[in-house]
Write a structure and sequence with these properties.
Two copies of one chain form a homodimer. With 362 residues, the first copy, chain A, is an alpha/beta fold. Chain A has two domains: 97 residues, RuBisCO large subunit, N-terminal domain (Alpha-Beta Plaits); 245 residues, TIM Barrel (Alpha-Beta Barrel), CATH 3.20.20. Helix content of chain A is 42%, strand content 19%. The first copy, chain A, contains 16 helices and twelve strands. In chain A, the strands form three sheets. In chain A, strands 2-3-1-4 form a four-stranded antiparallel sheet. In chain A, strand 9, helix 12 and strand 10 form a beta-alpha-beta unit. The radius of gyration of chain A is 22 Å and the shape is elongated.
Chain lengths: 362, 362
Amino acid sequence: MSRFHAIYHVRSDARSIEARAQAIAVEQSVEMPLSAIEDQSILDEIVGKVEAISDLGSGTFAVRIALARATAGNDAGQLINMLFGNTSLQEDAVLQDAEFPDDVVAAFGGPNTGLAGLRDRAGAGERALTCSALKPQGLSPARLADLAARFACGGIDYIKDDHGLADQSYSPFAARCEAVAKALRESGAHARYVPSLTGDLDALRAQIAAAKSAGIDTVMVQPMIMGLSNFSRLVAENRDLAFFAHPTLAGAARIAPPFLFGKVFRMLGADALVFPNHGGRFGYTPETCRAIAGTALAEWHGLKPAVPVPAGGMTIHRVAEMLDFYGSEVMLLIGGALLEARERLTQETAAFVETVKGYRYG
Amino acid sequence: MSRFHAIYHVRSDARSIEARAQAIAVEQSVEMPLSAIEDQSILDEIVGKVEAISDLGSGTFAVRIALARATAGNDAGQLINMLFGNTSLQEDAVLQDAEFPDDVVAAFGGPNTGLAGLRDRAGAGERALTCSALKPQGLSPARLADLAARFACGGIDYIKDDHGLADQSYSPFAARCEAVAKALRESGAHARYVPSLTGDLDALRAQIAAAKSAGIDTVMVQPMIMGLSNFSRLVAENRDLAFFAHPTLAGAARIAPPFLFGKVFRMLGADALVFPNHGGRFGYTPETCRAIAGTALAEWHGLKPAVPVPAGGMTIHRVAEMLDFYGSEVMLLIGGALLEARERLTQETAAFVETVKGYRYG
């Protein structure tokens, strides 16, 4: 019987943890009293099994539960449903990690291009990659294209949409792709535009078609808003595209970010993982950030590594510190702090790019 | 300039709350330093505005922020992105509520049938509705169909899939629909089968086609796993179907359940809202449950009321107490506790149904 394993961190007292762990195993599998199950094969093969409980101190326990691989099928949505669906409704449990059989990971397949592919596209060799963001929303396609050209002239590798940019009336998706792609071609620089996809699966496919028709080969998605099944489907349908995954709506604390971003998003096909860096606008700790990057890059079931993209209020002054912290297998994303330079946007971008290129790793 | 309004509950000290509220307003709109924005129209019309801050005591503040309606367009995923996308990554904030202009609510349209339609289908008059669940997963379509027939003979109104049932090898979706629908037809009883849809939008559409071909007119969906945009699309494409919404992966505490279920899911088209009742397997309080039911049923932009379906470890012994608590505009869902009766399943179901029908409201 093939199984996958979920690891939950559960707040509990020592006397209650065995019963609570067993309750999670039942909730995430058959959701009913075991006394009402007549089939021995279901009790043996489908009901979740508590395999280990360890005391992490401070009233938290790690609970390892084996779940039947058959319950998840080959659908990413159903996989997260079996891993955490109903237990997400309980305040005492965090989905900390999971282990999957090779065939589950292979069926999803991971990044199309990953770190090496994103470096190749940028002609970046072994160095860290650079990225900025088009914003604020409310600007027209022509204005966003102008910003993109100025980033490109500064030498930036990737220019992504702010994740608030969708298919709005003030900046329709297809018109934005055309305008930005044209501006980048005319700039003669190597920068690639990464538009943000939104909407239902039909809309996402139409946006991909519009992006491809504008010559774009890299897109950004919001896996927790579009639904993991749709993300996985888009990646499988577009093996020629690279995908940036944005963390929007991923929550702060109920699914551990290193697992959600570094394993799930990567397994489903994220080539680059945007996440909130420590010390910026968000509350992630250095330890969480290090774990996200480490997980995204680690050898894991033969998948290509995904590029960590720490972001959220970064500035040029932090480049050296971030490269010390993350090493060269990273994409540094500075958005608002470059835009603050206004008429000096190209120069400020060039300074950012040169700082990254000139950095000597210790 | 049309706006919608989000209300966040934010943990903060009194000295910091104004700056924190302003930071949320920026994060959920332009995501960049306002000093870098050159366009007065974007500052005036697109940037979020803090409209009110009130001290709720115990270090929590209610923050009301106006966001530009244009940023959300007409897409449900983009709406939740603008309401809570990046702020979901912060541990100090909960999305408590939101207010939408009439045209936003009207564009989504709400439940196809709602409470009255679900009562009509069951011939239930003004009484509370009854529901049970097919489980455990691992059973074959034939075995699930047998369970369904026995629930039906006991007089139950609706029989939903356990939300763990998907399109698995041991119980393929189409075969399950055929088998259960046939068993219910042959039972001669009025019960309706509510199969659970999973997968990407293509898979969801194929499952709806299979369900309709088996004569089924009510389905269950998992909005937070399928993605809100896809949920909304399916409802619009299938005005003849009733939709049960399951709360799986909706989290415990970061988006207030009365808002997420009673407003967002209802606005997008949920006719019935399954949620964890207090005093069962989940930790929701009576106050939260009362607020979910009240919100689902309240007059709101002219939408049909959605039926609250409190569930999660309910038993016949709680029927009177639950009807005292919720009144008659409710669907009571008892799953495992009926299945525990095993060979007496039909009689136990009949006892449940009779208790609901015989209850006299105070």
